[in-house]
Amino acid sequence: MTDKPKFMMQTYINCTQDALWDALINADAFQHYDFLEQTATRDNDKVTYMMPDGTVTLYARDLEVTPKTKLVTSFEPTWEPDAPPSKITYEIAVEGDFCCLTVLHENLNNDPSDGTADGWVRSIAGLKTWLETGKPAHFGGAYLMEGM
Amino acid sequence: MDKIFKALNDPARRALLDSLRKHDGQSLSDLEQVLSLSRFGVMKHLKSLEDAGLIVTRKQGRFKYHYLNALPLQELMDRWVAPFLQPQARALTELKQKLERDTKMGKPDFMMQTFIRCTQDALWSALTEADQMAAYHFACNVVQGNAAIDQPTAFILPNGDAMLRQVTTAMDPKTRIAMTFEPLFMGPNAPPSHMVYLIEDQGGQCKLTIEHYDIAPGQEGIAEGWARLAASLKSYLETGAALKAAM
Is the predicted pLDDT of residue B97 greater than 70, yes or no? Predict the structure, then answer.
């Protein structure tokens, strides 16, 4: 048990379990729904995330992979090089024609209201739109980019 | 009015008033301790204050208790000071009321946000029109009553029971809806709470915020309902197909 801050959210997505799993595990899919339009590349169990200009923002290592059901990864942002990595758990539960996706971000080094929660809400909304409409969705908004 | 100024024109009497301000309802014996005067001297001062209406007394058994009466001083303030203070005082009072109104609800017990690719008009219609609510509500296919000030909206389950009743309490067109939340699905006596929808147009997409206040202990399950509702609403607006839960 830890007292470090954590963030949890759930949503329901009208898609197959395979499609949702692929969107989470396949680094190429990330560019279609990330709120900052980042891209990702996978090298075995390590995924590297980059801003559109190529700046590396984050590494995530697979810690536990249960195909189609559960993915646990580390969360190692480059903006916190000295902080201990936090941990992300994605869980997929099939419910009739759609899936329930639970995202848990644990061992955070800061209050989730400082931006972590907002980032998740935006990216998961984008993931849902992308999977349901087939159109990429980046719920970042120009005003967010201006500050970076 | 002369009596008030006369009564105040003495350090011993002001000391008695100060003592009552700190500790109201003192007896003569209590007040004797305040002043290094004879019992008679203190009684004389108290009489003068009582004549001026600055203190009132109440007898109980053998004792007489003295209470500060601020009314005559308030009347003096109103007469000479208030005309100067009024605009500022009124502004401050209004500020206080505004702050209290805006923060009265405090921190929500539950908050969630999502982003929906739709127009502000479409989201507003979906949140206010009963037939649209019925189309996307995860559990109810019948909803009675559009969202309108002081009007109820009832969410009806397929078995005919009302699951939820909401009364709209405030509306800011296209941006905010405040409603009560009467969770009938948690039993006939489940404590009601209240919630707010906030819509922010971000050009081609809307940010929807759901805030829920005063959720009673044991009603934490409401969070799952909101996750289902928001997800289904988003699907409905973006694809035309809602996410009805298998029940």
Answer: no
Tell me whether residues B246 and A11 touch, CB distance under 8 A. no
* Set of chain B residues whose Cβ sits within 8 Å of the Cβ of A123: none
A139 vs B: CB within 8 A? yes
Nearest one of B222, B79, B119, B203 to B163, comparing CA atoms: B222
Share of chain B above pLDDT 70, in %: 90
**More confident site: B2 or B228:** B228
**Fold observed for domain B2-71:** Arc Repressor Mutant, subunit A (1.10.10)
Whole-number Å distance between alpha carbons of B84 and A14: 66
Q: Does the residue A1 lie in any domain?
A: no
What would the mean pLDDT of B16-33 be, rounded to a whole number?
88
* A148 in a structural domain: no
pLDDT bin (cut points 50, 70, 90) of residue A131 is very high
Cα nearest neighbour of A136 on chain B? B117
Whether residue B237 is predicted with pLDDT greater than 80 in this model: the reply is yes
The model's pTM:
0.72
Residues of chain A positioned with their CB less than 8 A from the CB of B230: 11
Task: Quote the minimal CA–CA distance from A49 to chain B in Å.
Answer: 22
Shortest distance between the Cα of B15 and any Cα of chain A, in A, equals 53
Q: What is the pLDDT of residues A12-50, one digit of tens each?
A: 999 999 999 999 999 999 999 999 899 999 999 999 999
Helical spans, DSSP H, in chain B: 2-8, 11-22, 28-34, 39-51, 71-76, 82-103, 120-128, 130-136, 222-239
What CATH number is associated with residue A58?
Answer: 3.30.530.20
* Number of domains into which chain A is organized: 1
Domain B110-239 homologous superfamily, CATH: START domain (3.30.530.20)
Select the more confidently predicted residue: B155 or A81: B155
Residue A96 burial by Cβ neighbours in a 10 Å radius (0-12, 13-18, 19+): exposed
Q: How many CB atoms lie within 10 A of CB B23?
A: 12
